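Format notes (please read before filing issues)

Several people have asked whether sequences and structure tokens are stored in separate files. They are not. Every record keeps both together, in the order shown below: the sequence lines, then the token lines. Line labels are part of the format and must not be stripped during preprocessing.
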Amino acid sequence: MSVYLSGIIEGFFGRSWSWEDRRSSIDLLSQGQLNSYVYAPKSDPYLRRSWADAWPRETFLQLQELGAHCRGQGVLWGVGLSPFEAYLDYDETTRSRLRNKLREIDRLQPDILCVLFDDMRGDLPGLAGLQARMVADIAANTVAGRVIMCPTYYSEDPVLERVFGAMPDHYWRDLGRMLDPAIDFFWTGDRVCSAAYSSESVCAISEAMGRAPVLWDNYPVNDSQKMSRRLHLRPFSGRPVGAPNWLRGHLVNPMNQACLSRIVLSTLSGYEDFAGAVRQHCPEGLARLLERDIECFSGPGLDAIDGSARQALLADYGGFDHPCAREVIDWLQGGYAFDPACLTDT
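Then the structure lines:
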């Protein structure tokens, strides 16, 4: 039986984390008894639009160091490849380029390889077969011990069909039938950004796919046009209890703000409320400010902050030389601009 995965998938659009942000977040996982980190930022072109091209040397060296850091912390190390719409023309040239990319990824020694077909065109006859064929080729040509695919339709949310076209008939059942049983799949729940998850809905997709999903939890991510104007600081709630009985894993997609994300991630196990979590990561005065502003930042966000209120907040947070305070200031000043490549706005 495969190990139950728990941790982070860095899978958002927009401004990326720094390499130090990533290392610090991996440290938090090991401290919180979570076991997985997957590198899959949408801003890395060498995983997505330019997937067939090699990473620049400096980036590749940083990725090697990141994998080594995961191993040193006892955290499973994953990479998320999004071969953008390669299934539209999956000829021998494309297959050769894919094998070359997999050889490059193998040099990173990943424990987990994710094959991500999210945010791509899907209204194609035979889509399940095209994607299953690619996943089979990838699984046969990777050193990773765990392969997880993300379907193009990874939720029942109607927004996916509005943006990426009508889902082919029987897509999930066909995909589940064609995929090797050892291949896992991602699922975000009833919605792209689900407020809660029920065993009933998970059991329904498990029956369709012939296996339990790995939950891709789009909280506290804030990369869409609406959500980029908020900082999701509220603790986790409505998440699965006894999840290993009906899921194969639970990976969280965090905010563009890495340090603030770590506060929220500290509540994932249910043993910390916001007050306790924020004091793990911030000095007392800054913690009090974030407690004061959590409802505004997490609710109406920037839309409720006028010019004078913004200046007052900038002054308050400017009193602290701390990465969480700097992230708040940057957000208040518009430093986390919405990336229009994120199409599934919620």
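For reference, the curators noted about this record: The first helix runs from residue 19 to 31. The longest strand covers residues 5-10.
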